[in-house]
Each structure stands twice: as structure tokens, then as C-alpha cells.
Amino acid sequence: MIARNHRFHGLNSLRIVYKLGRTTRQQQLTLRHHLNERRQTYRCAVVVSKKVEKSAVRRNRIRRRIFEAVRQQQDLINKPYDLVIGVYSQTLTDMPSQELRLQVKDLLAAAGVIDAKPQR
């Protein structure tokens, strides 16, 4: 799980991202991001609808897995972005963690939130 200072608090804080943010979409995930100059670090939220998965236990599992994938990429996030990741597929529940991590990294790189340079 990511640290408390990297999470959104309250419903109003997401409105700015939905209103002003730019969207990057992949087959199973979407990312809305907005540069927030008033903050020092990034914030992240994961939205999993009941249309994707009826069970709250499985929705929370997807959410925790994506938070962990973002946490592993946090050193590469170069500016104080507000990130909202939306989920469109229930297959993320059983997907291997390495594959999920790669999808999240590709999504962040496609949006320009992280640098996509290969690490040595």
C-alpha cells in the first residue's frame, strides 16, 4: 500500500483531476493525470466500479494490487502529479503481479508521468 501522503482524501479532491486532467487509456486500465504544483509529491487513487466486479473483496484486491504497482514505480514519478487509475477488466484480480506491474508502468510512461528509459 502506498503511504498516506500519496493518497487522496475526500471526494472533492478528485473533481479537479476529472475536470482538468488528461486521459491515457489502455485495454484494461485508464489513467487521468493532472500536474498539481501546490503539492510536493504525487497522489494516487484507484477506481474500480461495481460494473467491473460485484464483490467488494475482489474490488479491494484489485485496488491494493494496483497501489502496490504504483508504489514500486514511485521513484520514477518526476513531478507532483494527481493520478486516478480506472479499472475496466476483472482479469486484473488473477493476473500475475509482474504482468500487472508492467501494465501500470507502461500506462504511466505513455502518459508521460514517468520516464520510460530502460534501467541498467
Helix proportion: 25-40%
Counting H and I runs of at least 4 residues, what is the number of helices?
A: 3
Shape: globular
Biggest sheet strand line-up: 1-2-4-3
Structural class: alpha+beta
Count the E strands.
4
CATH topology: Ribosomal Protein S5, domain 2
Low-pLDDT ranges = none
Largest sheet: number of strands, sense, barrel closure:
4 strands, mixed
Question: CATH top level?
Answer: Alpha Beta
Distance from first to last alpha carbon: 26 Å
Instruction: Tell me what portion of residues adopts beta-strand conformation.
Output: 15-25%
What's the average pLDDT? 90
Count structural domains.
Answer: 1
Report the C-alpha radius of gyration, rounded: 14 Å
Q: Secondary-structure element sequence?
A: HEEEHEH
Assembly type of the chains comes to: single chain
What is the level-2 CATH architecture name? 2-Layer Sandwich
Q: Would you give an account of this structure?
A:
With 120 residues, the chain is α+β, with helices and mostly antiparallel strands. It has a single domain, classed as Ribosomal Protein S5, domain 2. It has three helices and four strands. A four-stranded mixed β-sheet has the order 1-2-4-3, with helices on both faces. Helix 2 links the parallel strand 3 and strand 4. Helix 2 crosses helix 3. The radius of gyration is 14 Å and the shape is globular.
